[in-house]
Amino acid sequence: MRVAIYCRVSTHDQSCSRQERDLIDYAHKAGYEVVGIWKETVSGVKEKHLERNQIMELARHREIDAVLVTELTRWGRSTLDLIHTLQDLSHWGVSLIAQTGTQFDLETPQGKLIASIMASIAEFERDLVRERVRSGLAAAKAKGKRLGRKPGQRVKSDRLAPKVLKMVELGYSYRYIASHLHLSKTTVSDIVKRHRMCKEQKDSDS
Q1: Is 79 within the bounds of a domain?
Q2: Do 24 and 100 belong to one domain?
Q3: Among residues 47, 81, 105, which one ends one of the domains?
Q4: In sequence order, which residues have a C-beta less than 8 Å from that of residue 93 and are 6 or more positions away?
Q5: What's the number of domains the chain is made of?
Q6: Model pTM score
Q7: Dist CA 40 CA 11 (whole Å)
Q8: How far apart are CA 74 and CA 184, in angstroms?
Q9: Is 10 designated active site?
């Protein structure tokens, strides 16, 4: 089995050495072929995981069979991010294997159960966020603040539209694009729809 080893720490005063050593040892004992080792220091949800993105590219091209990590928290930035990336890996036929020996494959009964549990947790997290947002908006409105953006203003989505369209052209899923660019899947879909509508309008005018 061809595996990519992924190590991550949250701060620059930490080291990936232990993770790397343990995962290499685990891979050798299991008889895996180590394609490469990717290491990065990144913590926040909004930070880009450049090394992880390289592994996702290998998975998309079927150049690896599994990703090896010490634990799930090293791979996923959040519950929702973990679900999305697991779904993409599953679509490409690639598993995520933790050092404990647990294989997270959404095609297996165990994987489906784990995905179901994580989806419930993610929904709970989204509900908490929505509740905090509603509370914040209500407080701001009570103070007389004007809320919302100007009609037709889509600053972030307009800025990232070229990247979204390029990634769609390259065959990335909406889910992966949304996770990679920190957009919602709905926003990605809207960008593509607007682009197609504009193209159809131009074609009809010509």
Answers
A1: yes
A2: yes
A3: 105
A4: 62, 65
A5: 2
A6: 0.58
A7: 10
A8: 23
A9: yes
